[in-house]
Every structure is written in C-alpha cells, then in structure tokens.
From TrEMBL:
Belongs to the LDH/MDH superfamily. MDH type 2 family. Catalyzes the reversible oxidation of malate to oxaloacetate. It is an enzyme of class 1 (oxidoreductase). Residues 157-319 form the Lactate/malate dehydrogenase C-terminal domain. The gene is mdh. GO terms for molecular function: L-malate dehydrogenase (NAD+) activity. Keywords: NAD, Oxidoreductase, Tricarboxylic acid cycle. This is Malate dehydrogenase. Residues 5-146 form the Lactate/malate dehydrogenase N-terminal domain. The active site is at residue 187.
Amino acid sequence: TKPAVRVAVTGAAGQICYSLLFRIANGDVYGKDQPVILQLLDLPQAQNAVKGVVMELEDCAFPLLAGVVITDDPKVAFKDVDAAFLVGARPRSKGMERADLLLANAEIFKVQGAALNAVAKRDVKVLVVGNPANTNAYITAKSAPDLPAGNITAMLRLDHNRALSQFAAKIGANSADIEKLAVWGNHSPTMFADYRFATVKGEPLPKLVNDEEWYRGTLIPTVGKRGAAIIEARGLSSAASAANAAVDHMRDWIHGTNGGWVSMGIASDGSYGIPEGIVFGFPAVCSNGSYEVVKGLEISEYAQSMLNITLKELLDERDGVSAIVG
Ligand code: NAX
C-alpha cells in the first residue's frame, strides 16, 4: 500500500467536520487506495468533543484511516501535512460588529498561516472554509510567505454546487451535465454565478433557461442567500453540503477535472482586473495536482457590474484587516 498522506482539519469538533472527517477517512478526497492520517485542531475547550468524534471515527473501522492526531496547537496539527482544511473560525456572537468579526478571524488565520509556513509540506494544498473565507485565505497566504500563494485557496464550491442544482431543476437536466459554470468573487451574498459560458450537452445554458429575468432576479439571489435560507429552516448553518463542497474542491484539485470548470477562491494574478493577491472566486481547470484560472473570457457590462460589487466587498474586507497583515 501507499504511504499515508497527512491531512489537517481545523474546527474538528464543529458541525461541518462532523461530516467532513468521515468523508476524508472514507477515501472521498484522496481516493480508495490512499491511506490518510487526520491531524485535528480545535480550541482547548473543544478537545474533549474532538475525542468523542474520534471515537466515532474509530467505530467506522475505515480501512484507509491510518492514524489520528488531536491537538490545540497549530504547529502540531500542520506538521508535514499534504493538505489542510481550515474550517474552524470565530462565529459572530451576539452584538459583535462585522469589523470585530473580521479582526477576530484575522488573528486566527494569521497564527495558522504562520504555523503552516513553519511546519507544513512545501506543496501543501490549503482550503479555507471558515468565514469570511476569502479574506481568511488572503490573511493565511500573507502569513505564509514561504508557501506559494496559489496553494492557499478559499471555498466557492458550495455556491457553485448550489447554482448547478438550481439551474438543473429549472431546465430539468442532471446537474452533472452542466459544464462551464463560473462563480466569481466573494463567498457571500455578493457572489456572481455566471451562466453565460455554461452548456448542457453542448447547448448553451442561457438558451435552455431562456429567462434572463429569472436568472438575474431569482437564481442569483437564491444562491446568494441560500446559506441564510438553510439557517432559517434548519436552525443551524449548512454543514453536510459544506463538507461535500470541501471534498469536491480538494478532490478535484488533487485528481483534476478532465478539462471541466470548477469555481475556486484563488489569489488573483491580476486577471480580469482583480488586484493581485485578492482571493477571488474564478473559474478554474484542475490537472496534475494544480489548477489554472480560465483566462480570456469576455466580460459583459452586466457581468462587470456584478464583479465590481463583489470585488468592492473584498477590498473593504482587506482594508478592515490591514492593521493585522499590513
Ligand atoms: P461550528 O461552530 O459548528 O464549528 C466550528 C469549530 O471551530 C468549533 O469546534 C470551534 O471550537 C472551532 N474553532 C474556533 N476557533 C478555532 C481556532 N482558532 N482553531 C481551531 N478551531 C477553532 O461551525 P461550522 O458549522 O462547522 O462552520 C465552520 C465555518 O465554516 C464557519 O466559519 C462557517 O461560517 C463556515 N462556512 C463556510 C462555508 C463556505 O462555503 N466557505 C459554507 C458553510 C459554513 O457556513
């Protein structure tokens, strides 16, 4: 058998991890022939809860689970890791302002970025899930100057999957048949789900939908506000679907997409006028363990106006954390 890969997961006692850890241990990310060692990070007060989750992992008798580390120290959690899912974050507490939330998370991701920089494998693949995911990824990258900025990504895949499913329902197609969908920008209600290039078995999706008003007035806000709708209905935020999107993101990055497009939060190289370094949702194609942003797409006036809105939000977030990352 292959030597085990090491996968760090933070926020291990939380709800997303209650699904995510079992998917990773089952081989859904690295494949059914690849043993994994899970290195779990959570706060000191959550260590006991993590132990309980690990008891359940043991009780699944996963053949691929080659070991588990439980810690409250990022340098232990990230030691020699091949991949890291940064799920744990500070939630908004009652009366907490947005600015304070940004700063509280900036402190967390500064520490974790520095720890990754110190002890992770040099080609570690990092996925930031904890919100505000794009800006947390931006801080992680800035705090890990010895790692390639491109190796630190943010999760837009849940928005991508939400949009796929809404389009599929609208036209009565299977979501797997929808290709070349792009979700741009911030993982927030300002994200821009762009169907202009999408096709279903070669047919243009906009032509199949044939309802631009529905697209702009219903599809986009439905996807943007889906997280809030789930909280409203379930009393808890999306967890299994978020874990599923994290699995999709990392699996595709590792194994490739055969030319297919996915949406990933990526440090901009200046493409599409997005300032360098801003972690922005872009369409990307994955192959051989890396990815490329899809370049040269035409940006219509409407698309540009949508990109401007989500970019402005990210620039404001960046300004909000400038005291911490400079
Ligand atoms: P939970 O509150 O259930 O769990 C969070 C866990 O993180 C807790 O166990 C907590 O102790 C731990 N934690 C907090 N600070 C930590 C730190 N500094 N180091 C290590 N662990 C720490 O949240 P859950 O529902 O699992 O959601 C986790 C994060 O994902 C939240 O920030 C949430 O907003 C975000 N989401 C992001 C999504 C995306 O698409 N990017 C979608 C789903 C989700 O809303």
